[in-house]
Amino acid sequence: MHEAVRAAGRLFPLSLPSRGTCTIGGNLATNAGGVQVLRYGTARQLTLGIEVVTADGEIWDGLRDLRKDNTGYDLRDLYIGSEGTLGIITAASLRLFPLPRQEETAFAALPSIEAALAFLGLARARLGELLTSFELIAATSLALVARHLPEMPLPYGAASFTAPWHVLVQASGDANVAERLEATLAEGLQAGHLIDAVVARSLAQARELWTVREGGLGEAMRRAGGAIGHDVSITVSRIPKFLSDAEARLREQWPDVLIAVHGHLGDGNLHYNVLLPPQQRTADAAQRVHRMVYDSVAELAGSFSAEHGIGQIKTDELRRYKSSVELGLMRAIKMALDPKGLMNPGKVLI
């Protein structure tokens, strides 16, 4: 789909590392996010209308392309993100954007997570709507890439591990994008937010930088084995406290734990991966890790599932962290739209 849209001179900005295998229906059912949410929003914001097969076999034609339609309950948003438990999305009308004439990518090293937030604020102020992506990567995550994917080039080679945090920044627009991005990086260096930065000078170099984020990190976690993953979201200003609190809890129990973080800093979505020492990797330990991480998230009014949904794996967390009012409303909606429990049974609400 991306190729067809691009051939027509347009952009569909829902961009995911799994874009080679995922489907539009699945993206809408989970309200997928990806690396360009900062500028364009999630799947919900990118959808104008949908067609749905309901639990009783009827077809709801909601394929409108209206930007405004205030004629009752918003059924579109109810089905998007419901993980197929209310009905099956069979077609969609999606928002497209003009294809940017210029796209620039940079990779920068930072001395602290606080510096990353300060540079995010600076980038937003200086780049405005040109700022497309702002991805956070911990040095521990890059070290896993180097260990398990030695053939993959890292942005600054061996120096990639001298700074604790890194950001992958993308800006796009029609004019002066490179100049504005480089000026922003220079200001960040002068202010002490950045330690070092590299700017891609070609499309090939940009792809190399993005390959680390979109392919390298996930594959490195897979090859490392035993990673206990979390897909969480926290108000951006509270991320430093979350990282501090969660690590303190984990290290009190497992002093040698390895924590590898990456994610979409611009919208507060972190992929928080925990690797315990091999001899301590048990099912019970994994459950305790989940509880520690999710408790740290909940204490800061965050979400234990930012973009990966509930499915059948996180149903216990849904009951633990959602209020009784929310659960009651969700069950009432499920009963009204799928009283026989035909739609994706055993998922989300059980």
UniProtKB/TrEMBL annotation:
Residues 1-99 form the FAD-binding PCMH-type domain. Gene3D superfamilies: 3.30.465.10, 3.30.70.2190, 3.30.70.2740, Vanillyl-alcohol Oxidase, Chain A, domain 4 (1.10.45.10). The keyword Hydrolase does not apply. InterPro entries: FAD-bd_oxidored_4_C, FAD-bd_PCMH, FAD-bd_PCMH-like_sf, FAD-bd_PCMH_sub2, FAD-linked_Oxase-like_C, FAD-oxidored/transferase_4, Oxid_FAD_bind_N, Vanillyl_alc_oxidase_C-sub2. One of its GO terms (molecular function) is FAD binding. One of its GO terms (biological process) is respiratory electron transport chain. It comes from the Bacteria. Keywords: FAD, Flavoprotein. Pfam families: FAD-oxidase_C, FAD_binding_4. Its cofactor is FAD. Belongs to the FAD-binding oxidoreductase/transferase type 4 family. This is D-2-hydroxyglutarate dehydrogenase.
